[in-house]
């Protein structure tokens, strides 16, 4: 895509600008903010726009260069109408794909919000988003690489049945984004992509490696696949992450992250740091609150209810080195001392907060680098 027109513009950041990605704790859902100083792009918006709005206002953002919506499920688009209709921000492009099967109230509200904001001003436009989009999505020194879906999957409808991969659903065609900072891959945001979608990605020979993996479908079962462990192992091997994040709601959906999914992640990346945004009911009594002393000073949906595990996680790049907030050690110490029976608790060294340059050039391996 590097030879194609650029959307959002490459605006050099100063040495003091914060270049990174923040994975927001929005409960059971997904939302991330890619930022270079006050330039921001939002990828998904959870069920409520409260947390994304709070983060943008904390960063003193007045313009979203991009609003990318991976697919039409409420836990990914629920907060988007609030963002679209908030006059505190202007918006460059809303990137969203059609889905004729969607007939939900939130899907209708999104359509109305786009029309209203376009009519009254403050929104440049909206477009479909596929691997053939033909434009480079930039946010200052950050770049959003679209790895999935391709154009034929989107226009073919979710009932199409490719002979090799089985029926497609809305999850199958979720937009998968790899975020680059200073042209080095840093995070893979996999939305709700399922086994059929992953098979398409593998078949297209896309490069997925990144230090951070936001695991798809909140660690739930990958669609109709009866091999969740294999799905998790395959995806994790391809990404080879140092940090795996499950974006979940505390006390909800107690099967997430699914035990077979977590086992597959561990087999592929045994030394990766695993973190959930909120406490899984499998790990901790859902009625027992925890303190938030270990959390980053950023908006997090689980903070007030004492349900945060890692909470909101920010990954920043500075002179080619990645750093995490909260520090991974803080999260590990919290899990060790405050979580009843954490699934992620293992006696392993923390992964090195590696250089993005090394991340891009190192040989592929199923293991994260040792300290």
Structure description:
- With 371 residues, the chain is α/β, with parallel strands linked by helices.
- Helix content is 23%, strand content 22%.
- Helix 7 runs parallel beside helix 8 (259-268).
- The longest helix is centred in the N-terminal third of the chain and has 16 residues, at 105-120.
Could you write a compact summary of the structure shown?
By secondary structure, this protein is α/β, with parallel strands linked by helices.
Protein topology:
Layout: E1 6-7, E2 19-23, E3 31-36, E4 39-45, H1 50-58, E5 63-68, H2 74-77, H3 80-84, E6 90-95, H4 105-120, E7 123-127, E8 136-139, E9 142-148, H5 151-155, E10 176-181, E11 184-189, H6 195-203, E12 212-214, H7 228-239, E13 243-246, H8 259-268, E14 273-276, E15 313-318, E16 321-325, H9 328-338, H10 356-361
Parallel strand pairs: 1-8, 4-5, 5-6, 6-7, 11-12, 12-13, 13-14
Antiparallel strand pairs: 2-3, 2-15, 3-4, 8-9, 9-10, 10-11, 15-16
Helix pairs in contact: 7-8
Q: How many beta-strand segments?
A: 16
| Strand arrangement in the largest pleated sheet | 1-8-9-10-11-12-13-14
Overall geometry: globular
Helix and strand element order? EEEEHEHHEHEEEHEEHEHEHEEEHH
Distance between the termini: 35 Å
Structural class: alpha/beta
Helix content: 10-25%
Please give the count of helices: 10
| Rg over alpha carbons | 19 Å
List keywords for this structure.
371 residues; alpha/beta; eight-stranded mixed beta sheet; 10 helices; disordered C terminus
